[in-house]
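Contributing new records

If you add data, match the layout below exactly. Sequence lines come first and carry their own label; structure lines follow with theirs. Keep one chain per record. Anything else will be rejected by the validation script.
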Amino acid sequence: MKSALFLLLAAALPARADHDAHEEHPAQYSADFLAGAVGARAAGMGEAATAAVNDAGAIHWNPAALTRVEKRSATFMHAGAVGDATMDFGAYAQNLGEKVGALALSVHYQSAGRITGTDENGAEIRGPAPSDLAIGLGYAYKLGAIVPGLSLGVGGKFVRSTLVDSAQTFTFDAGILSPALFSGKLRLGASLGNVGGALKYGETAEPLRRVGRLGAAFQPTADWTLASDLSWAAGESVAIGAGLEYWMRATGDWRVAPRAGYRARTEYGFEALDGATAGIGIASAKFGIDYGLAPFFPTGIEHRLSLSMKF
């Protein structure tokens, strides 16, 4: 298992190397929303989800974690960031059994809002409305006889981006998730996203921003989860995130989970509470709603709301 983790992470290292090699002339990347985060639970926990994710959102964080979906899972997220910018994400996953694997489908959409300006007479001009769309398909399989409990996952995405003109491409993801270690309390995971693909506007082709993630999730009891992630993206500095959640019984089969975390990129430092995150979740056996509050680097705050279902 250690060898598999090493190979996956080694494949992501050129993303960091690109940043070092072109520091004076940084490369231009496209469809940055693919390298970002989804889900209100992850937002509240410092965006540490590579090993902690357990629903259909795994198709974004780590496709190997789709094997943690027990039967069927659906999740929907809406996020508001700076100005009129919004992001929406939806995914459905179904576990078809250990001998078959798990499948997932996702739709990821981001809008920057309409650009407006004024003409020479001061009249308002309605400009373009930049947006990005990704439609993804993921598959995960839990190995049996070879390495019991080890999960491998792959995914592919069709990406379309619209500025004034539109461009489209395909890209791929891969992930690995360890079996539950130390009496089922610890999981380790790694993923590599946005491998290949470039959006071409006219004569200029901009590659997608590749991202690598390494994560751990520790559950000392069934109610507590502590998670941490180390991630890096092409052309950007390393990001470190950590978070925790604690589930408390409310009424009937409903439970409540306060969440807290911290996330920082090394280029911005670790000063004050700039990277602090928080959130809360309310869930029953089949339905859940989550809210997350996270920093929007380098300035601003992002609010995320997620709905999830298990059936």
